Structure formats: structure tokens, C-alpha cells
Amino acid sequence: MDHISPGNSLNEIARQVKRWREEKGFYTPSQLDKDTLGKLMLVVTEVSEAAEAVREQDRALFTEEIADVFIRLLDITGTMGIDIEKAIARKMNVNAARPFRHKKKLDL
Ligand SMILES: [Mg+2]
Q1: Distance 49 CA to ligand 1 centre (A)
Q2: How many whole angstroms from 46 Cα to the centroid of ligand 1?
Q3: Which pLDDT value is given to residue 108?
Q4: At 63, which CATH number?
Q5: Cα 105 to ligand 1 centroid, rounded to whole Å
Q6: Ligand 1: centre distance to CA 72 (Å)
Q7: Going residue by residue through the chain (108 aa), what tens digit of pLDDT does each one get?
Q8: Can you give the pLDDT at residue 1?
Q9: How far apart are CA 101 and CA 42, in angstroms?
Q10: pLDDT at 82
Q11: How far apart are the CA of 69 and the centre of ligand 1, in A?
Q12: Is residue 107 part of a domain?
């Protein structure tokens, strides 16, 4: 597997995650199906692990678990052929066009 370095694009990391999963025997194609629902639940488990790291006040563990969240998300986007960089840019432009505080009265 190619060495993964900081500075790689999200789409490149998604390709590397896909290759890594293939090499380790975990690759399954993602579509809008039960397999993807399972993968999304794995994202939730990583978020839960990050929450536990906050409770333990362990910044190194928190960083590692947040990285797991991204890796699992990029696994999904990579195997589904989603250009996540384009999708993020498109959505951030949508967000930028929204009114201040989205006219919400309650800050949650
Ligand atoms: Mg983890």
C-alpha cells in the first residue's frame, strides 16, 4: 500500500482507504444498501469512541478516534465513487448562502 502522508487530498485518501481494505480482505462495494447502513453504524461507533475520549480527557485518543471517523466516511465515499471534495465545496456554498443563524431562535 502507498504511504499515506498528511497533505493528500480527501479523494486520494479515499482511494488509499479502498486499497487498504482490499489488501486486508475487508473491501465490500458500497451502494445505497444494507452494507452501507452497517458502515454508517461503524461511523457512529467511532464517534462514540471519540466521545468516550472526551470523557476521559484524552486528546491523543480523541484525535485517533476522529481520524477513524474520517477513514470510515472516506471508505464509504471512495467505494461509492463520490467526489467528496466537490460535494463538500458544493455544500459549504449552500451553507454560506443561508441567513445568519438560519433564523433559529434556540441555540443547541
Ligand atoms: Mg476507533
Answers
A1: 6
A2: 5
A3: 67
A4: 1.10.287.1080
A5: 36
A6: 10
A7: 566 778 889 999 999 999 999 999 988 887 888 999 999 999 999 999 999 999 999 999 999 999 999 999 999 999 999 999 999 999 999 999 988 887 777 776
A8: 59
A9: 31
A10: 95
A11: 8
A12: no
Residues 6+ apart with CB under 8 A from 6: none
**Centre of ligand 1 from the C-alpha of residue 52, in Å:** 11
Instruction: Please provide the size of the chain in residues.
Output: 108
50 Cβ contact list (under 8 Å, min separation 6):
62, 65, 66, 68, 69
Q: What residue numbers bound the domain in which 72 lies?
A: 10-98
Q: What angle do CA 82, 74, 29 make, to 5 degrees?
A: 65
Structural domain total, the chain: 1
pLDDT of amino acid 90: 96
CA of 76 to the centre of ligand 1 (A): 16
Predicted confidence at residue 2, as pLDDT, reads 61
Residue 30 lies in a domain: yes
Cα(63) to ligand 1 centroid in Å equals 10
SS3 content of the chain, % helix, strand, coil (to 5): 70, 0, 30
What distance in angstroms lies between residue 62's CA and the mean position of ligand 1's atoms? 9
